[in-house]
Amino acid sequence: MIAYLVISVDDRRRIEQHAGQDDQNKALLDIVIERKEPAFSVFVEGLRNYGYADIADDLKCDSQEVGPSTTLVALEHEGLSDWTVPLYKICLQKNYLKVITDIQHECIVDHLITKEVMSVDDGKKIESGKTPQEKNRMLMETLLRKNVHGFSEFLVALRKDPVYTNLADQIENTAVTMKDMAILHKCYK
Predict the structure, then answer these.
(1) What's phi and psi for 101, nearest 5 deg?
(2) What is the 3-state secondary structure (H, E, C) of the chain?
(3) Spatial separation of the C-alpha atoms in residues 121 and 112, rounded to whole Å
(4) Where is the CARD domain (predicted)?
(5) pLDDT band at 85 (very low <50, low <70, confident <90, very high)
(6) What band does 61 get if pLDDT is binned at 50, 70 and 90?
(7) Best CA proximity match to 181, nearest among 56, 94, 64, 55
(8) Higher pLDDT residue, 183 or 28?
């Protein structure tokens, strides 16, 4: 859902603070209900993709009976001056899944510490993750809290390894639409 811009890394952290899976599921549902569309559609599609097609179908039917939401339409007409989500955050979030599954964080974190984008403590926190994916999630969480300089240095770090050059190009050239800005802006309200 992060890659679809309907939840932020802060939302993810709030969800994961709950001890049990049931409580985490409830926290996610609370966010989806609060945000309405398009969070609801992304949630339903996620259910379908992860083997819960029957629940997804039931939810789709229920939502169609209620009628289309006007939330996104209203968001698209909000004044742009009210939007404070930097474009690089959208580029990072839209590529979130690719980053957490495809990279090896060590050299990237070392580069970011060397360039003073991250502290040694940030590096230790990232290393405390149990799995490579968890470490990459912490890296992304840290990057999404940094400024555009951190984003630029992250791309430089990716490009140092020929394996990640295409990923760096993909992230840098990610299309950011008004709809993307509207959706992510809703996460930070």
Answers:
(1) -100, -20
(2) CCCCCCCCHHHHHHHHCCCCHHHHHHHHHHHHHHHCCCHHHHHHHHHHHCCCHHHHHHHHHHHHHHCCCCHHHHHHCCCHHHCCCCHHHHHHHHCHHHHHHHCCHHHHHHHHHHCCCCCHHHHHHHHCCCCHHHHHHHHHHHHHCCCHHHHHHHHHHHHHCHHHHHHHHHHHCCCCCHHHHHHHHHHCC
(3) 12
(4) 1-49, 92-160
(5) low
(6) low
(7) 94
(8) 28
Q: Crossing angle, helix 39-49 and helix 21-35, to 10 degrees?
A: 140
For residues 7-36, give the mean pLDDT.
Answer: 82
Give the pLDDT of residue 46. 81
Please state, in angstroms and as integers, the Cα–Cα distance from residue 169 to each residue in 88, 108, 158, following that order: 13, 16, 9
Token pair in block for residue 152: 């630029």
Residue type, 23: D
Question: How many whole angstroms separate alpha carbon 29 and alpha carbon 39?
Answer: 10
Answer whether 182's CB lies under 8 Å from 75's CB: yes
Kindly state the tokens that stand for 82. 């009210």
The predicted-structure confidence for 40-57, as pLDDT tens digits, reads as follows 888 888 887 778 777 777
Q: Which whole-number Å values give the CA distances from 166 to 134, 149, 169, in the listed order?
A: 23, 20, 5
Alpha carbons within 13 angstroms on the beta-carbon side of residue 151 total 18
pLDDT at 188: 67
